[in-house]
């Protein structure tokens, strides 16, 4: 059952449930599932080691498992979840966007971004999005369905395998950061996103073994779910997609604001920061002549005073045919200066992927 006040969504009529996968299950459930297949329970840990640690879902290489059991285990616990429609790269290969087709034909996207000091992967938690933000390609497409825990995890496993196998220029590397900023509102798919975080951060062979501190979860401000997330005991970073400091404008840019207002969202974010010990990030897409006025920067600075927040300004990556576009450079500079004058730390996000339809949802929309 959802927490009181949490948004829930109904899958489209006719949508089929993703097949059960090893990554949907915790270690105890995996042992039970393996035993139900007539195999010894310890095979669950062997299977987990192959998938999470060795990044292998090909039974041909599982030489520590009897040949007769491999196909049975693979068919029951590592079914195909998604296939690559295409990869598109830019930045001399350092940025790679992947369009996936899920088992039911649904399309989602992920992005792998390699920097000199880190590798970040941006993953989707839903196919589409139900938040209806007018400047966002995903939001305008609407919600198809939630992704399963395994469908989320598999995006990261595939990215880690691509880095290990040298598919991304620059030599072998490891993922260092995961951001839930792809398609969808992560906290609207709460249970599966939390499950994915646990699979990603459980020590091998039970999980991928990533650090919680390297994971960022973005939300438009689903207050009950934010407070519930604060009780999970995670040390992930929480990023709030604010985009406007005043309720009048934010009601339009982020329609869920009609339910939970700016101050409620910031108070919930502060609660998470206190319990997790992590500074919150305020995501703010700068949109020309809409939310980039200097007075709005000053208001944002006053609202954030004493909250220990960091503002991440995002030059809008415009979508084809949209009236929304990025701010003028001089307006961006004035916005930054106004925040700094209020003592609020601020950075302007490095924009990547514009030439490969980098904004979330653009590639899926083009494919449709």
Automatic annotation (TrEMBL):
Protein's GO biological process: rRNA base methylation; tRNA methylation
Binding-site positions, S-adenosyl-L-methionine: 184-185, 218, 241-243, 317
Other comment: Reaction proceeds by a ping-pong mechanism involving intermediate methylation of a conserved cysteine residue.
Annotated positions binding [4Fe-4S] cluster: 129, 133, 136
Main subcellular location: cytoplasm
Compartment annotation: Cytoplasm
Cofactor detail note: Binds 1 [4Fe-4S] cluster. The cluster is coordinated with 3 cysteines and an exchangeable S-adenosyl-L-methionine.
Protein name, entry field: Probable dual-specificity RNA methyltransferase RlmN
Enzyme class: transferase
Source species: Streptomyces mimosae
PROSITE patterns: RADICAL_SAM
EC number in record: 2.1.1.192
UniProt keyword S-adenosyl-L-methionine, yes or no: yes
Catalysed transformations (reactions): adenosine(37) in tRNA + 2 reduced [2Fe-2S]-[ferredoxin] + 2 S-adenosyl-L-methionine = 2-methyladenosine(37) in tRNA + 5'-deoxyadenosine + L-methionine + 2 oxidized [2Fe-2S]-[ferredoxin] + S-adenosyl-L-homocysteine; adenosine(2503) in 23S rRNA + 2 reduced [2Fe-2S]-[ferredoxin] + 2 S-adenosyl-L-methionine = 2-methyladenosine(2503) in 23S rRNA + 5'-deoxyadenosine + L-methionine + 2 oxidized [2Fe-2S]-[ferredoxin] + S-adenosyl-L-homocysteine
NCBIfam families: rRNA_mod_RlmN (TIGR00048)
Family from the record: Belongs to the radical SAM superfamily. RlmN family.
SMART domains registered for this protein in UniProt: Elp3
Active site, UniProt feature: 109 (proton acceptor), 360 (s-methylcysteine intermediate)
Cofactors demanded by this protein: [4Fe-4S] cluster
Region (Disordered): 1-22
InterPro entries assigned: Aldolase_TIM, Elp3/MiaA/NifB-like_rSAM, Methyltransferase_A, RlmN_N, RNA_MTrfase_RlmN, rRNA_lsu_MTrfase_RlmN/Cfr, rSAM, rSAM_sf
Keywords recorded for this protein, A-Z: 4Fe-4S, Cytoplasm, Disulfide bond, Iron, Iron-sulfur, Metal-binding, Methyltransferase, rRNA processing, S-adenosyl-L-methionine, Transferase, tRNA processing
Residue ranges annotated for the Radical SAM core domain, each copy included: 115-355
GO cellular component, as recorded: cytoplasm
Gene Ontology MF term list: 4 iron, 4 sulfur cluster binding; metal ion binding; rRNA (adenine(2503)-C2-)-methyltransferase activity; rRNA binding; tRNA (adenine(37)-C2)-methyltransferase activity; tRNA binding
Source organism phylogeny: Bacteria, Bacillati, Actinomycetota, Actinomycetes, Kitasatosporales
């Amino acid at each position: 059952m959802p927490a009181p006040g949490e948004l829930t969504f109904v899958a489209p009529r006719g949508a089929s449930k993703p097949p059960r996968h090893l990554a949907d299950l915790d270690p105890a459930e995996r042992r039970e599932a393996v035993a139900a297949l007539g195999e010894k329970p310890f095979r669950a840990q062997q299977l987990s080691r192959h998938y999470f640690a060795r990044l292998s879902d090909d039974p041909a290489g599982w030489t520590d498992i009897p040949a007769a059991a491999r196909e049975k285990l693979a068919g029951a616990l590592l079914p195909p979840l998604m296939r690559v429609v295409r990869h598109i790269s830019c930045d001399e290969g350092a940025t790679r966007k992947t369009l996936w087709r899920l088992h039911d034909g649904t399309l989602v996207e992920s992005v792998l971004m390699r920097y000199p000091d880190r590798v970040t992967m941006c993953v989707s938690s839903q196919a589409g999005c139900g938040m209806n933000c007018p400047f966002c390609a995903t939001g305008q497409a609407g919600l198809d369905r939630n992704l399963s825990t395994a469908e989320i995890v598999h995006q990261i496993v595939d990215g880690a395998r691509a880095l290990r196998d040298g598919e991304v220029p620059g030599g072998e590397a490891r993922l260092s950061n995961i951001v839930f900023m792809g398609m969808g509102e992560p906290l609207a798919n709460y249970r599966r996103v939390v499950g994915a975080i646990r699979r990603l951060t459980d020590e091998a062979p039970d999980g991928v073994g990533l650090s919680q501190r390297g994971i960022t979860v973005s939300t438009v401000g689903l207050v009950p779910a934010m407070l519930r997330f604060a009780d999970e005991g995670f040390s992930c970073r929480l990023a709030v997609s604010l985009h406007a400091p005043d309720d009048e404008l934010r009601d339009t840019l982020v329609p869920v604001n009609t339910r939970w207002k700016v101050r409620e969202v910031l108070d919930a974010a502060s609660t998470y920061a206190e319990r997790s010990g992590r500074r919150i990030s305020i995501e703010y897409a700068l949109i020309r002549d809409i939310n980039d006025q200097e007075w709005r920067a000053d208001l944002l600075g006053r609202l954030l005073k004493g909250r220990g927040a960091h503002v991440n300004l995002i030059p809008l990556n415009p979508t084809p045919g949209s009236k929304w576009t990025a701010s003028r450079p001089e307006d961006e500079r004035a916005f930054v200066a106004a925040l700094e004058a209020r003592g609020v730390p601020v950075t302007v996000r490095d924009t990547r992927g514009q030439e490969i339809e980098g904004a979330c949802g653009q590639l899926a929309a083009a494919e449709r």
